[in-house]
Amino acid sequence: MRLREIPITAWIGIIGILLAFGCAIFAPLLAPYGEREIVGDVWLAADAHFLLGTDNLGRDLLSRLIYGARTTLFVALAASVLSFSIGIFLSFTAAVSRGIIDQGLSRFNDLMMSIPTLIFALVVLAVLPQNLWILIAVMAVLDSTRVYRLGRAVALDVAVMEFVEAAKLRGEGKMWIIFREILPNTLSPLLAEFGLRFAFSILFLSTLSFLGLGIQPPAADWGGMVKDNKDGIIFGISAALIPGGAIATLAICVNMVVDWLLKRTSSLKGGRGDG
Amino acid sequence: MANMLSVRNLRIGATVYPPGEAPKDIEIVHGVSFDLERGKVLGLIGESGAGKSTIGLSALAYGRGGVRITGGEVLLDGEDLLKADKKGIRQIRGARVCYVAQSAAAAFNPAHKLGDQVIEATLEHGLMTREEARARALYLFNILGLPDPDNFGDRYPHQVSGGQLQRAMTAMALCSNPELIVFDEPTTALDVTTQIDVLAAIKNAIEETDTAALYITHDLAVVAQISDDIMVLRNGETVEYGPVQQIIEAPQEDYTKALISVRQTKQREARDQSQALLSVNNVSASYGNGFKVLHDISLHVPRGQTLAVVGESGSGKSTLARVITGLLPPTDGSITFADEDLPAQHKKRTRDQMRRIQLIYQMADTAMNPRQTVGQIIGRSLTFYFGLRGRKKKERVQELLDEIEMGSGFYDRYPAELSGGQKQRVAIARALAAEPELILCDEPTSALDPLVAEGILDLLMRLQAETKVSYLFITHDIAIVRAIADSVAVMLQGRLVDFGPRSSVLSPPFDDYTDLLLKSVPEMELGWLEKVLATRRMESAGN
């Protein structure tokens, strides 16, 4: 893999993502002020002290944006990884087993999908204690229904190939067939979906925070910051747009990288040339 | 008489995209020249990748995706097609030069009636009125020997057989009364018994309409029946070019000689029947929808010997293999292997029972995981069945690679980096790694070029001599049966028509169907087609 082969769009995406992760990891070093520190007047315009101005309580917007990257990225990433693990495992099991296991899992999945995601999340989160891990788990379970759908479709496609049949005739177990025969041949569509789902997770977390059920104040998170500052828009103050812009930029960056990965994996040595 | 088509020093290039490297241009046809007179047929013959289809399509000034004509001249009645503009080319394609594709089933639109599709191009070019075109189509259906020609045009593609579709496509090409038709392997996808009818129909139609034709195929015996001249191609270059008689009877080049001798495969001495290793007892099977595909089949595979199962597509021969492997449990009957009853479902069999029966597929491409290296593919059986790991496993894989004449350099290669024949060899090594007693071979050579296929057959025979493995060899090719089988089973529409030692099945008195099958295999002999057709006519007159 030579660096110069990476297209410019992928570079932009990579730099964007690295920047966001850099902010998340080194937040205490980078942020000029504390996350919860009230440092000035309400909704100050950007100046030399406050590079992006201040928020509805007079906290430095830049500092909160940097700290917010931590929670936002961590929760979204954890939720995506978890939802993919659940979704892929269950969907591949269904595709390989067929019969009653497939029917049971697929109909249960349909049932889950028939309940509007947001309402489901609101109800569950309102009942359960407010806790970061529960938030991640709820997001992951809800998202995994979408992953299941895609996973089952692509796995069924591969599961009928003769090399899978050959593995079955060798006497291989389900786990080998799922992880060694099918998974490597479905990576391209799944990677693409991962990029999308990661971006959706950021947006979903933001939505939940906006509604007051996500990250709890005073901890900073990009969605919550939009909510905190939304009233400013009425007065012509753009503070809400800055975290909003950050969410949009990160989502685009992730997708640019995924697009490139998609092209790369489908042209991999030994790939099936699809994608 | 003046040449109607003259191809001069044709060069064709393509851009390839090797993984991990910059795209590069390669030349796939290196300066090929030939001439074709009106009413004559030129056969283009060669292995896959020889450039024969590419050359054929250049007569329509067409290059398939990524392919472009880089030099030379294609003169149709003295006019260079390569210099014509798009509009000029459009007026020639489908009107003066027509194309018949290999897979007629994929070339017809399933949503329209055959009659409308046959005359479509002719009407599009405004060459005839609708009535004239219909009359012409009817005439063509007649000379192509299609059943019920008056109503044939009212049928949809799915309502007629593969052989009829191929003839309908020939009618479509002939409809506009073209000067030249390019036939691209028109009978390759057909069964031998169907192929003979289509060949006769095409030959008759070409003679009747006085059209010139380029006939592309990889089967020298087929092209010998239909061509006036033959051009043998290899790797985009002309190997030999001359009248059919000279090529068949006095070939000059070694490559041509090899192609011809492949067809006359040496017969192996059939051995005396040994004791049965696998017995299939009164087996019937049906698919989930209740459609019965196997009716009361009983046969056995002798130990250390080869049973060939012959039949046309749809005869149930591959289904029989699926039943034996346990992928499709039979509805009736039982299977005994080495004097033990085999459980009907593969899931219920022990690992050792699975090890002892291995399967080689027709398409090695799909039978191997494209994301695993050759070493992983072969090595997995070693780990799985014998618990070999690390260096021991690697050594054994190397041994197996030597065994299939491929050498250790292939250990880290992916299937996509291998040729068709190499892939099939790896598939054989994978089966061999399990040290089986029986290998089911499901048409392992039918997707390969004749010379490569011969190599695979030789390998299989050598391995049998060394390891005493038995084969159940599924094929539609009688020549292969003659070359390798000790006993033969002939299948037709899910039933066993004939079963016994090769000497008794392949010598008179024949079963009727076996006789038809034997007589339909093209022979490397001029005038073979006429002879067979004449015999048929006599027989039908006698009845």
From TrEMBL, chain A:
Regions that span the bilayer: 6-30, 73-95, 115-142, 194-213, 233-262
Localization per Swiss-Prot or TrEMBL: Cell membrane
Annotated InterPro entries: BP-dependent_transpt_permease, MetI-like, MetI-like_sf
Chief place of localization: membrane
Bilayer topology term: Multi-pass membrane protein
GO biological process, one term: transmembrane transport
Domain ABC transmembrane type-1: 69-258
Record's GO cellular component terms: plasma membrane
Listed Pfam families: BPD_transp_1 (PF00528)
Keywords: Cell membrane, Membrane, Transmembrane, Transmembrane helix, Transport
Family under the similarity heading: Belongs to the binding-protein-dependent transport system permease family.
Protein name (record): ABC transporter permease
UniProtKB/TrEMBL annotation, chain B:
Keywords attached to this entry: ATP-binding, Cell inner membrane, Cell membrane, Membrane, Nucleotide-binding, Translocase, Transport
InterPro entries named among the record's database cross-references: AAA+_ATPase, ABC_Ni/Peptide_Import, ABC_transporter-like_ATP-bd, ABC_transporter-like_CS, Oligopep_ABC_C, P-loop_NTPase
Record carries keyword Cell membrane: yes
A single GO molecular function term of this UniProt record: ATP binding
ABC transporter domain boundaries: 7-260, 278-518
BP term (GO), one: peptide transport
PANTHER family: ATPASE AAA-TYPE CORE DOMAIN-CONTAINING PROTEIN (PTHR43297:SF14), OLIGOPEPTIDE TRANSPORT ATP-BINDING PROTEIN APPD (PTHR43297)
GO CC annotation: plasma membrane
Gene3D superfamilies assigned: P-loop containing nucleotide triphosphate hydrolases
Main location: membrane
Compartment(s) of residence: Cell inner membrane
Protein name: ABC transporter
Entry annotated with the keyword Translocase: yes
Lineage: Bacteria, Pseudomonadati, Pseudomonadota, Alphaproteobacteria, Rhodospirillales
Membrane topology, record value: Peripheral membrane protein
SMART domains noted in UniProt: AAA (SM00382)
UniProt similarity note: Belongs to the ABC transporter superfamily.
